Amino acid sequence: MPSRLDDELSRLVSAGVLRQYQADSIRDAANAEIDAVLADPGRPQPKPAAQEPPAKPRTPQPSTHSNALIEVLGYIGGALLLGAVALLTLANWGEMGRAARISTGTSAAIILLGASVVLALLRGRGQLSSALASLGCCVAGFATYVAIEGETGRVAGVAVALALVAAGLWWLAGSSLLVATFGILAVGVLVITADVLTPDTGSAANSAGIAGTGFIVVAFVFGMLGLVRDQVTAWSLAGAAMFSSSICWLVQERGEIMALAVGTAGPAALLVAYGRRRHSAYAVVACAILLVIWPTALYQLTDNMGGVAIGLVVASAVLLVAVLILSRRRSNE
User: Fold this and answer.
1) CA–CA distance, 286 with 235 (Å, rounded to integer)
2) Closest CA to 110 of 137, 90, 88, 80
3) CA distances from 309 to 131, 255, 297, 319, 321 (A)
4) Angle at which helices 204-225 and 256-277 pack, to 10 degrees?
5) Do the Cβ atoms of 6 and 31 come closer than 8 Å?
6) What does pTM read for this prediction?
7) What whole-number distance in Å separates Cα of residue 175 and Cα of residue 14?
8) Taking CA 26 as the corner, what is the angle to CA 24 and CA 29, rounded to the nearest 5 degrees?
C-alpha cells in the first residue's frame, strides 16, 4: 500500500476525523483493490473523468465556526463549574455539614452528566459530551464516597464511577472517557489493595506487589479496549498502567526482577505496535518507561552506578540490534 495513504489515514485518526476501525477498513479496501489489479493485469481500469475547470475555493461555512465556538464554550463552562465546586468544597469543607457535602457533590454530578446527555442527543456523540461525562463520572464517584464514608464508601464510590464511565464508553466512545476510566481503575486498584485485599497488619511493601498485579490487569483491560475504541489512547494508557505496575514492584520487597520484566514487556509491546501502526505516541511512552524503570531497578539490584551503566549499555545494544534486523527485513521486502 502506498505510504502516502497510510500517512494520511494516521493523520486523520490522530486528528479525530476517523476512528481506527474506519481507517483499517479503508486500508483493507485499498489493499484488496491493489491485489485485484495485480492478479488480473488485463482488468479494465475505470476511465478518468473529463477534466473539469478548477473549482473556486470554498469559504468556511458559518456552521463550522458556530460548532467550534459551542465546543470551546462547553469546555470553558464545564471547567468553570468544576472549579467553582472545588473552591467551594475546599473553602467550606470543614464548616459544611454532611447533607451539604452530599448535595454539593450530587448537584455537580447531575449537572455535568445531564449536560453531557443533552449535548449527545442534540449534537451527536461529540468530544465535548465525552469530556463532560468524564468529569461527571469522577464527581459522582466522589459524591458517593462522601455519602457513605469509610472503607465501604471508597469501594462504592469507585464502583459507581466505573459503572457510569463504562456506560459512557459504550454510548459516546470518546477518548476522554478512556482517560477517566484509567484514573478510576487506578484509584480502584489502590482502594481494593488497601481496604479489601491487604490485612490491617500487612506492610506497605507487601501491598505494593498486590497493587502491581492489579495494574497489570488494568493494562490488559486497556489492551482489549484498544480493539474497539480509540486505539492510540487505549494502548498508550495500557503502557502507563504497565509503568505504574513497575513502580509498585520497585517498592515491593525483592521485586526488582518483576519490575524489570513488567517494565520491559510493556515497552516491547508498544514498540511492536509502533512498528505496525506508526503512531509516535507508542514510541514516546515506551522510551519513557524504559528510561525510568531500567536505571532505577538496576540500581536497586546492584547498588552500584557502574552496574546501572552496564545494564543500560546491554539494553541499548539489544535495541540497536533489533532495529538493524527489522530495518534489513523491511528493505528485503
Assistant:
1) 11
2) 137
3) 43, 20, 12, 15, 18
4) 10
5) no
6) 0.69
7) 11
8) 110
SS3 annotation, the chain: CCHHHHHHHHHHHHCCCCCHHHHHHHHHHHHHHHHHHHHCCCCCCCCCCCCCCCCCCCCCCHHHHHHHHHHHHHHHHHHHHHHHHHHHHHHHCCCCCHHHHHHHHHHHHHHHHHHHHHHHHHHCCCHHHHHHHHHHHHHHHHHHHHHHCHHHHHHHHHHHHHHHHHHHHHHCCCHHHHHHHHHHHHHHHHHHHHHHHCCCCCCHHHHHHHHHHHHHHHHHHHHHHCCCCCHHHHHHHHHHHHHHHHHHHHHCCCCHHHHHHHHHHHHHHHHHHHHHHCCHHHHHHHHHHHHHHHHHHHHHHHCCHHHHHHHHHHHHHHHHHHHHHHHHHHHHC
Return the amino acid letter for 202.
G
Which is higher by pLDDT, 305 or 123? 305
**All three cell numbers of 245:** 505496575
- Grid coordinates representing 28 are 483493507
- Let me know the angle formed at the C-alpha of 204 by 203 and 209, rounded to the nearest 5 degrees: 105
Q: Largest alpha-carbon pair distance within the chain? A: 83
Structure-block grid coordinates of residue 11: 493523520
Give the cell for residue 166. Answer: 463504562
- Cell numbers 482489549: residue: 224
Query: Cβ(303)–Cβ(277) under 8 Å?
Result: no
Q: Which of the four pLDDT bands, split at 50, 70 and 90, describes residue 70?
A: low
**What pLDDT was estimated at residue 99?**
84
Residue carrying the nine cell digits 479496549: 225
* Pairwise CA distance, residues 113 & 55, whole Å: 44
Q: Can you tell me the distance from the alpha carbon of 40 to that of 35, in angstroms, rounded to the nearest whole number?
A: 9
CA–CA distance, 77 with 90 (Å, rounded to integer): 20
Which residue matches cell numbers 492510540? 232
For residue 1, the model assigns a pLDDT of 43
